[in-house]
Amino acid sequence: MKRLLVRLALAAVAAITVASIAASAAFATGTVKGSVTQSGHAVAGAKVVINSESDSNYQASAQTDADGAFSFSNAPLGLVSLMVFDAGDEVLATREVELTVQGQVITVALEITP
C-alpha cells in the first residue's frame, strides 16, 4: 500500500513538473529595448514596430520618448525584426535580433541615416 501511495505521489509530481515546463515554454518571452538616433542625436516621437519571425500573431509598436528610447517587453523568443518609421510610414531603419533565452534583454541602437 505504501509503495502504491509513493508511486502515485511521484507520478503526480512528475505530471505537475511537465505541465509547468510546457506552460512556461509556451509563454517564453524576452525584452527588446533601445534607442533611435540620427547623426548622433536622439529622435523623439519615432514609430518603432517589432514583428516576430516565428510567431506571425505578434506585432507591437511604440513611440520613442524624448531620449529616443523604446522598449518591448514580452516579445516572443526567436528572430524579431525592428523597423523605424517616419510620419508618412516610410521605413527609416531596420534591424533583426534574436531572443534565445526566457527573460533575455537585448539593447539595440537604431541609427537613421540621412
Summarize the biggest pleated sheet.
4 strands, mixed
Radius of gyration: 21 Å
- Predict the CATH topology: Immunoglobulin-like
Overall 3D form: elongated
Whole-number total of structural domains? 1
- Report the portion of residues in β strands: over 45%
First CA to last CA: what distance?
Answer: 78 Å
The DSSP helix count reads 1
> What percentage of residues falls in helices of 4 or more residues?
10-25%
CATH architecture label: Sandwich
- Arithmetic mean pLDDT: 85
Can you write the helix and strand succession as a string? HEEEEEEEE
Low-confidence parts:
17-25
Q: What is the C-level CATH assignment?
A: Mainly Beta
User: What name goes with the CATH superfamily?
Assistant: Immunoglobulins
Question: What would the keywords be for this entry?
Answer:
114 residues; alpha+beta; Immunoglobulin-like; four-stranded mixed sheet; 22% helix; elongated
Give your account of this protein's structure:
The protein is of the alpha+beta class and 114 residues long. It has a single domain, classed as Immunoglobulin-like. Helices cover 22% and strands 49% of the residues. The chain is built from one helix and eight strands, in the order H-E-E-E-E-E-E-E-E. It has one helix at residues 2-26; strands at 29-38, 41-42, 47-52, 59-63, 69-76, 78-85, 91-99, 105-112. The strands form two sheets. Strands 1, 2, 5 and 8 form a four-stranded mixed beta sheet that branches. Strands 4-3-6-7 form a four-stranded antiparallel beta sheet, with no helix packed on it. The longest helix has 25 residues, at 2-26.
